[in-house]
Amino acid sequence: MKACWDAAGEVIKAWATEGHSVALPGLGSMRFGLRAKSVAKVEDVKTSLISTRRIIFTPTQDLKDELANTSIQITCYDRNGDVVKRVTSADAGTVEDNDNENTNSESEQGQQGSQSQQGQQTASTYALTISRTGVGSATVTKDGNAVTSGTSLNEDDEVEISITPAEGQVPTATVNGSEIELTEDNGVYTGSFAMPGQASTLIINTGEGEDDDYDPNA
Fold first, then answer.
1. What confidence tens digit (pLDDT) does each residue in 34-52 have?
2. Spatial separation of the C-alpha atoms in residues 32 and 11, rounded to whole Å
3. E strand or H helix at 19, and its extent?
4. Burial code of 107-134, b = ≥16 C-beta within 10 A, e = fewer?
5. How far is residue 193 from each of residues 54, 55, 156, 174, 180, measured CA to CA in Å?
6. N or C: which end of the chain has fewer CB atoms below 10 A?
7. Number of Cβ within a 10 Å radius of residue 101
8. What percent of the chain has pLDDT over 90?
9. What is the number of helices (H) and of strands (E) in the chain?
């Protein structure tokens, strides 16, 4: 029996690793799964979205019925080891269905895309330092809200820039040394970038000259 059980264990591991749901006779089935953050665009899919790996066991109905019908006894002892209270279960025998729990947060191996349980993923945040030179004006926002120097943002947060440069000047903006493409409309230049997964520096040049009164936190 030991040799058979050991051999069966190796087969179960091999099949589960390949993405199969493996039957365990008399007990249920098991498979591997993931908890991962969901994204809307395929170009945003990356391995860093994975938060945890899981082993998911789905019991047979017979096994769940056996647990539901099992009487549970709770015995309380005092410090001397004497029984002070004994109660027997009178609950409805409800068995938690782990296979359906967090269905929207499980992603089995072999499937494309990923989903996440609301509140399960705690996103990391990174500080954005903003530095500006020139005599024009500029605003930095996220979802319509002002972003000031030192603000912590999540990776891939969309940051928008609006620049009104000094007269006759063409502004520039870079994040961590990479130039941000700006589009001009009626003298106002706009652009955006996705927040990198690290502390970053945004440098905006609105035109010639230095504005010593500029406060990035204003």
1. 888 887 888 888 888 888 8
2. 14
3. none
4. beeeeeebbbeeeebeeeebebebebbb
5. 34, 38, 8, 10, 7
6. N
7. 11
8. 21
9. 2, 16
Q: Is 189 exposed, middle or buried (0-12, 13-18, 19+ CB in 10 A)?
A: buried
User: Residue 202: is its pLDDT beyond 90?
Assistant: yes
Q: Strand pairing of 200-205 and 125-133? A: parallel
Question: How much is the pLDDT for 108?
Answer: 42
Identify the residue whose tokens are 């782990």: 98
Looking at the whole model, is its pTM more than 0.85? no
In the numeric block, which tokens belong to residue 180?
């941000």
| Residue listed under structure tokens 């620049």 | 163
